[in-house]
Design goal:
Helices cover 39% and strands 16% of the residues. It is an alpha/beta fold and 352 residues long. The protein has a 6-stranded mixed β-sheet with strand order 10-11-12-9-8-13. It has a 5-stranded parallel β-sheet with strand order 5-4-3-6-7, with helices on both faces. A hairpin with a 2-residue loop joins strand 1 and strand 2. The mean pLDDT is 96. InterPro entries: Ald_DH/histidinol_DH, CoA_reduct_LuxC. One of its GO terms (molecular function) is acyl-CoA dehydrogenase activity. This is Acyl-CoA reductase.
Amino acid sequence: MDLQQRINAFVKLGEFIEQFSTEGFKINENISTNILFFDGFKHQIKLAHEHNGWFTKENISFSLSGWSKSLRKNNIEQWLDKYDFNNISSKKVAIIMAGNIPLVGFHDFLSVLITGHEVIVKQSSNDKHLLPYLAKYLEHLEPGFKGRITFTEEKLSEFDAVIATGSDNTARYFEHYFKGKASIIRKNRNSVAVLTGEETDEELKALSEDIFRYYGLGCRNVSKLFVPKDYEFGAFFNGVYEWHPIIHQNKYANNYDYNKAVYLMSEFDLLENGFLMIKEDASYGSPIATLFYEYYNDRDELKSLLEANKDKIQCVVSKGVTADSVAFGQTQHPHLWDYADNVDTIAFLLKI
């Protein structure tokens, strides 16, 4: 396969998954492969939810909708335009995937295959139904992918490079185990929002999407607020109120009740509204149903703090407080070139 053949295959994959959007599952009669794959993928979505209660139909569809837009031809070509794909020597690249949100490892999967390498995928047990089915669909679209995609639950062996995502603890294991191999190893990261007190109701409403989508389990979910001294949280609570039905999800409600009990027994000061607790805390990674906050006095000091802690932060949501700020409501809509941990995966894959 040449690069254009690989691009064309992923574009067609995007057209297939576009049928499973947040607006409902609707068959596109122009996709001839539906007779073989449409009902099967619906079943995989059902299995994914039954296996992992966090993977609701809504959240899976949200992920698929995002990927269907990213896989449009103009987006892929814009993403790859700056790279030189000449003289690529195909290697075997292992990917160890996280399982916190649906298809969280798809960008690495796409990157390895689009650069012409073979991929060996070791999935999280939390997210093991969707990607293998999409890989089969990809092989059906472009037979050149056959034999170049492997899924394994065994110990990884016979590979040339690795992309591994995990916790800070597992990252230390990865760094030791994969020493001597070309690698990208990702650790825990969380996202933050900087508020000034001048946000509109619409901006705070948009921020709620950054907080609650995927129940806050993604690294791009906002888990901490930076607010000015004497900030009044009333406007914030009003802005996020439309997400109050989230408390009716049993797994979320159980976490809310548990964490609230722990905080109360520890006599921590809390603000809460029945479905979200906010707690003053210097940490970046907050538990489910909890948002940490920290006061700041000066924006320049805050910028210095964010820079000093950049290895802990995936995104900063703000109105231009930092040069690379993400707009309110946009953390879960990254471009293909918005690389996790700001590590250019394509550049890495082109030089191994």
